[in-house]
Amino acid sequence: MPQHTDIAIIGAGAAGLAAGIFAAGTNPNLRIILLDSAKNIGAKILVSGGGRCNITNQRVTASDFHGNRKLIDRILRRFDEQATIRWFESLGVLLQTEATGKLFPVSNKARTVLDALHQRCAALGVSLLTQHPVRDITREGDEFSIQHSRGTLRANRVILATGGRSLPKTGSDGSGWALAQQLGHTVQPTHPALVPLLLDPSFFHATLSGISHDVMLTTTIAGKTIDRRTGSLLWTHFGISGPVVLDASRFWVRAATQKEDVHLYVNCFPQLSPHDIEKWLIQTAALPGRKTIPAILAERLPSRVAATLASVHEPDLSRTPVNLLSKEARRILVQSLTNLELPIIGSRGWNFAEVTAGGVPLEQISPQSMGSRIVPGLYVIGEMLDCDGRIGGFNFQWAWATGFLAGSHAALQFPSSD
Ligand SMILES: Cc1cc2nc3c(=O)[nH]c(=O)nc-3n(C[C@H](O)[C@H](O)[C@H](O)COP(=O)(O)OP(=O)(O)OC[C@H]3O[C@@H](n4cnc5c(N)ncnc54)[C@H](O)[C@@H]3O)c2cc1C
């Protein structure tokens, strides 16, 4: 005889746990079961934000996300960053805001966040079945039949919260999309986002490994700029990382996957125009002291970066005094400093991506409830959806907001206790 529940939530990550808590909080009489394939849930919460869990941001808008921004805006308005702060306070997790606008638990430990979510689920009587991968879901009459590794569960409402494909060892291996497809949804092509990028091994990046500084990155497709952003870039032994690279990566990865003519350029002087740099070099050349090019560039860049950039196109420039710089050499130098093409050969892939771009189209979901427009009684939330946020706590805000909407709406479909 298969087990029966009112609400089954598939996936006990950030979005699934939030949905369970809000469903149980809305109607305490309901039987709510969370099924997860992993042995230990919340692995992604534990590794997030460098082990500190960047829960949200002090200002969250639809422009911090990629996807259908009109729908994203409607969803975020129903549960904004202030609601997240109040909710975590009610779970006993106080948050602090950093200068960057990111919010972390005061404890600075992601474990505090996971424990609070876990404990509230237990206190509300939400059942958690770990090591229960779901393989199949069919709709039979008014109910769903859920095939998992240990049998069948029947449910009146199903909330799909199986995440994306980033960091698959945490349990988020993309298998949830097959469940959504089986029920009639489509899935936009997926690719890693917020992912470090690999550079051609013959490039100079390895010599700068560990150095970070502010840059502007420009992504072009067939010569047309599709993304431009400024922030901190980290040189590594394999290529580039750091917030600005992670945020830009989705554009390069998607275009490369589609075999488009994509290029990435770095400007190491985002605060100055090429004209200003040229003027600065000319003015410095007129000063006494005969400084070398690397020494001058080091006034505004980390010295190893300065030395490397000085000689990237003209090896002799690393020793040339600035007053002996020819007009043509100066032009090439300014080009290297402001528009240097980075020879990207790929990304570090799903094992290093923080999030997934692509997924179930938002147009197939009601922004009031996260309910499916295709399958009555089904909800889809979190990273499964075709929406990805930039670095800064936005992806968790998406998980909490969509979990809130689906959990509370699903619970309201049953008669209340009073
Ligand atoms: C290294 C790293 C750091 C990050 N840091 C941050 C950060 O600081 N701030 C931020 O906002 N975002 C961060 N993110 C992104 C954030 O973790 C995700 O966007 C968020 O966890 C997505 O939540 P989710 O519940 O949708 O999916 P997940 O957290 O991926 O949860 C999905 C769950 O579903 C389960 N599951 C999958 N398939 C099945 C199945 N077939 N049957 C049963 N269970 C299944 C999985 O085991 C998993 O537990 C980070 C991500 C990574 C990888």
Task: Fill in the keyword field for this structure.
alpha+beta, FAD/NAD(P)-binding domain, 7-stranded mixed beta sheet, 7-stranded antiparallel beta sheet, 32% helix, elongated, binds flavin-adenine dinucleotide
CATH fold naming of the largest domain: FAD/NAD(P)-binding domain
Specify the number of helices.
12
Identify the CATH homologous superfamily of the largest domain: FAD/NAD(P)-binding domain
Instruction: Bin the strand percentage.
Output: 25-35%
Attached small molecules: flavin-adenine dinucleotide
Sheet with the most strands?
7 strands, mixed
Instruction: Report the CATH C-level class of the largest domain.
Output: Alpha Beta
Low-confidence stretches: none
**Main structural class:** alpha+beta
Shape: elongated
- Average per-residue pLDDT, rounded, comes to 95
By CATH, the architecture of the largest domain is named 3-Layer(bba) Sandwich
**How many β-strands, per DSSP?**
21
Query: What is the distance, rounded to the nearest whole angstrom, between the alpha carbons of the first and last residues?
Result: 31 Å
Helical residues, percent = 25-40%
Query: How many structural domains are formed by the residues?
Result: 2
Q: Write down the Rg.
A: 25 Å
Brief sketch in words of this structure:
The protein has 418 residues and is of the alpha+beta class. The protein is built from twelve helices and 21 strands.
